[in-house]
C-alpha cells in the first residue's frame, strides 16, 4: 500500500508583482502559481485548498475565531517492503482428521421427530396493563383538603 506524507502551507493573501501582470486578480493568481510550482519542484503534489477556523487570543482574556486559507500537498514516501513473517513452525502431531458434519435444517429435524410446525395458541388471559394515570389515595391530602382560609382569617384579625 502506498503511503504519503502531507504538508500544509498558508495560502498567499496578496498578489506578487510580475512583468505583464497588471490586475489584482492576475497578481494573486501569479503568487499561487509560484507557490504551486515551487512545491512541485520539491516533489510535493497539490491536493486541495481548505478554509479552516483558527481560534486566536484577542486581548487579555478573550478569543476570536479567524478563518484561514491553507493549501494541502502530499508526496509519496519511499516504499518500504515488509517481509511477511512466516507462520510459526508447529511440531508435527499425528491427529485424527476431524469429520465435518452439516448442521441439520428445520425440515430434517421435523422428519426425525415426526412433528409438524403449527402456530402458537392464542393468549386467553385478559391483559392487565398498568394504569396510564396514578389514582389518588383517599388518605392522602388533596389541594381542596388544606385549609388556607384560616391563615387569611388570622391576618385580617391582626389588621383590625
Could you please describe the fold and organization of this structure?
The chain is α+β, with helices and mostly antiparallel strands and 160 residues long. The chain is built from three helices and three strands, in the order βαββαα. Strand 2 (45-58) and strand 3 form a beta hairpin. The longest helix has 18 residues, at 24-41. The chain is flat. The protein starts with a strand and ends with a helix. The model has no long low-confidence stretch (mean pLDDT 79).
Question: What are the key terms here?
Answer:
160 residues, alpha+beta, three-stranded antiparallel β-sheet, 3 helices
- Specify the biggest β-sheet: 3 strands, antiparallel
Terminus-to-terminus distance: 97 Å
- Strand order, biggest sheet? 1-3-2
**What shape does the CA trace take?**
flat
How helix-rich are the residues, as a percent range? 10-25%
Radius of gyration: 42 Å
Please, what is the average pLDDT?
79
Structural class: alpha+beta
What fraction strand? Answer: 15-25%
Question: Helix count, per DSSP?
Answer: 3
Give, in order, the helices and strands.
EHEEHH
Describe the structure in brief.
This protein is of the alpha+beta class and 160 residues long.
Please render the helix and strand layout as text.
Elements: E1 4-10, H1 24-41, E2 45-58, E3 62-76, H2 106-113, H3 149-159
Antiparallel strand pairs: 1-3, 2-3
